[in-house]
Amino acid sequence: MKRIVTFVIGILFVTLSATAGGVRVLFIGDSITDGNWGNSCGTAKPSSERTLWDMNHIYGSGYMYLCATYYQGNYPEKEYEFFNRGISGNTLEDMEKRWETDAIDIKPDILSILIGTNDIHFYLQGNQKQPFDFEVWKKRYCSLLNRSLQANPNLKIVLCAPFVANTGSMRKSPNFAKRDSLVRCCAKIVERISRDYKAVYLPYNTMFDEILRTIPTSKDTYWIWDGIHPTPAGHQHMADLWIKHVKL
């Protein structure tokens, strides 16, 4: 988007073209990123059906919102632009189907991805006749990064580890140990991918491990209320880690 600025010097008109807006930061993933952005009413509405003009709900309510408010509130002169494209219930395959519209077309300078917990969730809900195919999962993940880097070779990438916790209703799950093991395998793959692509890696899994181990609370739901979704307190720690390591 361009804005035209015209200066009058005597009788000579000088027109300058300036780029509007600053660094473009895109957060994409599942419900943890979604946070009901664009008035989705808790549904998995595609981005095209969400409210893109209502600035009161444009970011949702989660770590992405906290990151955006930190930078936009403290550095207005930078004119940072933030975009939330998390969609509740998404797996990596779901995200792949919307990658052109929700990632490439936004033309981000910084791309932050958090995905994986739903891939394991839906796998565990299936018949599980075959082991979860981590190799296919990794190839799909890398394919999305390659597409984005082809569109913008200078793209800065931030990869976030998926996580799960034995808190709240998750305590009733008979297969938590298997879920935890599989999600941690996904996190290790994301960590390896981050090294291969020289991306910033955010170990949210180990961050929550440490919080749950060292900060006791009267309720086990204080940080992650259902084993998957962080509370506002948990989202604050996620935002703090993002801001600390990404450094716009």
Automatic annotation (TrEMBL):
Domain of life: Bacteria
UniProt name for this protein: SGNH hydrolase-type esterase domain-containing protein
PANTHER family per record: SGNH HYDROLASE-TYPE ESTERASE DOMAIN-CONTAINING PROTEIN, THIOESTERASE 1/PROTEASE 1/LYSOPHOSPHOLIPASE L1
Pfam families in UniProt: Lipase_GDSL_2
GO molecular-function term, one example from the UniProt record: phosphatidylcholine lysophospholipase activity
Domain SGNH hydrolase-type esterase: 27-236
CDD domains attached to this UniProt entry: SGNH_hydrolase_like_2
Lineage, top ranks: Bacteria, Pseudomonadati, Bacteroidota, Bacteroidia, Bacteroidales
InterPro entries in the record: Ester_Hydrolysis_Enzymes (IPR051532), SGNH_hydro (IPR013830), SGNH_hydro_sf (IPR036514)
